[in-house]
Specification:
homodimer; 359 residues; alpha/beta; Rossmann fold; Dihydrodipicolinate Reductase, domain 2; 2 domains; nine-stranded mixed sheet; 10 helices; globular
């Protein structure tokens, strides 16, 4: 993708908060894409971004969209502004990469889907966790039969940020942040499960609130029903960070661990992960005589954020396919909404029921 | 408990299969209890046991129960024979230690409960996992407030033994082994959860069968609702062994791991375990700047099986209280049965509903 002299795909950053800067740091010096312009409403903030990443600052979204030297946008505005920004981009023929979740309000999701489909733009949703080296290796081993038949998978994402929530924070509002940590944390693991096993059929869940100022759910345990495996998803906002995936197969089990405090340094994230395999090293007809062996799997580090934006750029140029499409992004949100509903209504919720509501 | 010259409590082993021998190896040289006699139907097997552990072999259960130099029994007969053996022991005024599960058939549980309560014998059920050094230390830290407020706990027990099951094996029969690995594996973790958090209010679950010759459930994921925490229980019979407990608190999270292949060597089991604590080592108002630290907790090894039988002996002598009483044992079975029913009927099951049926 990085042939010398080749034209780079020209991108603009829209939404220049913390995450917009993290993303720009990951792709601004890419050989595949070029960060040409930026926009956010706050003039000082866009001037600083433009200077830091050597790009133009547009005075308005309309001005940015009117430029014919911009191919696509990297959108990191707040979730509830995704729909209007994507509609405007699609109307102007600009391709869109948008941060997860694609949206959580059913009306917003329908607007985005209509805009993307009617315009035919290239669309990608930011779910980079599946590009972590260890997650890729889990999938490779699964596909190659190296873990045998999978039976159970457990994916957990926790951090302590719920403990800091103040009254009025959007994360404390069940409408803006369904299921609390499900929308902010769990969705990363829901996409990993999608990558490994597809879309689950149904979801059950239990949740609880925390000793904090907001009423949203702070802890969720959910069970996801896949074709062949039972999955557990843990999303907890009241405890020091954990990001783990345990996959249990008939030949081996795999444990993936990530120190999420390295998440934003995407070139270094993989250096703070581990993948461990446990298998039966010495088999025997007598089960008591079997001996387990644990091995650390060596991983070749990647750059999950840069790779995602470069794939988006290459897809715009017709040289790649987007992996996390609108359909995948919508399925991920459907699982979040199904789990939040399962917790609230204390019943098993079919993912198809939610998908029908947001499609 | 081991004052020199003190009379030891006199025990007899009933049921001399693999587990009866493991137990005897753990307590036969105790200062608190004395293994004085044994019985099983097979004459060669009881002769060999009597020789190996330097005790008498009784020709029948009645002969054993008629002896006035036996205070209590260590019962490790198959689960479905617990009720008649315990009834006979209670009628003869012999105290009973019985291997988990106390029983799984509601009628058997009621018979055992009536026999124990009517006779007033000392009764203990074998659930030794809670005596593992790391599990004790988890509880100590919880009680001392060292993990802060707990929000989530995950307990997993898996092994590959379901892959070996042949048609006709009792473990493959849902009536004798409800929920498959729930009865054989999950119950250990259910007792650990009982030790840490008490009896859950309700249970949800998902299960699946395996690519094996029996129709019983081979994998279960369950959610348990406690007063303050959400719990996940994984029980999987189709994968290399795992025995883990993850406890998530507001100040720290703890991970316990046990290599279960050392389970039967109870004096050495704790040497093959680890307890790890993750906490925020460097706090900051900026969540991105917080740094996690992982520490291995040092544990003082114990002997989970010996301790359990010695406690039983001391309780007979009036010098200790039994920790895993009939009520605890029945609550553990109620959770197994509730989880198996939740999986089968795809609904949330109240533990009180099952407890009412078996009481």
């Amino acid at each position: 993708m990085s042939e010398p002299g080749k034209e780079r795909v020209r991108l603009a950053a829209v939404g220049l908060g913390r995450w917009g800067r993290v993303m720009a740091a990951a792709y601004h010096n890419s050989d595949v894409v070029e960060l040409r312009a930026c926009f956010t409403r706050n003039p000082e903030r866009r001037a600083r971004f433009a200077e830091d990443f050597s790009c133009d600052a547009a005075a308005s979204l309309d001005e940015l969209l009117a430029r014919d030297d911009i191919d696509g946008l990297v959108v990191t505005v707040p979730n509830d502004q995704h729909a209007p920004v994507i509609e405007a981009a699609a109307a102007a023929g600009k391709h869109v990469y948008v941060e997860k979740p694609v949206a959580v309000e059913p009306a917003d999701i329908r607007r985005i889907a209509a805009a993307v489909r009617d315009s035919g733009i290239t669309f990608a949703c930011g779910h980079s966790a599946r590009r972590l080296a260890g997650v890729r290796e889990m999938r490779r081993r699964l596909d190659a039969g190296e873990v045998g038949s999978p039976s159970l998978v457990e994916a957990v994402f926790s951090n302590e940020r719920g403990l800091d929530l103040k009254e009025g924070d959007w994360r404390g509002d069940p409408a803006q942040c369904p299921g609390g940590p499900l929308t902010q944390l769990g969705i990363h693991q829901i996409d990993n499960l999608n990558y490994l096993f597809g879309v689950p059929r149904s979801v059950m869940g239990m949740g609880r609130r925390g000793p904090v100022a907001v009423t949203n759910t702070m802890v969720v345990g959910a069970l996801l029903e896949f074709e062949d495996v039972v999955a557990y998803l843990g999303a907890d906002w009241l405890t020091p960070g954990a990001f783990t995936i345990d996959l249990y197969g008939s030949k081996a089990r795999l444990r993936y661990e990530l120190d999420f405090s390295w998440w934003s340094n995407s070139a270094d994230t993989d250096d703070h992960t581990s993948l461990t395999e446990v298998s039966i090293a010495s088999d025997s007809a007598d089960p008591d005589a079997r001996v387990l062996a644990e091995k650390r799997v060596s991983l070749v580090p990647r750059d999950h954020l840069r790779e995602e934006v470069e794939e988006f750029g290459a897809a715009i140029g017709g040289e790649a396919e987007v992996e996390v499409t609108l359909d995948v992004a919508m399925a991920n949100v459907a699982v979040v909404l199904a789990a939040a509903r399962a917790v609230e209504q204390r019943r098993q919720v079919e993912v198809a029921e939610v998908l029908a509501e947001i499609s």
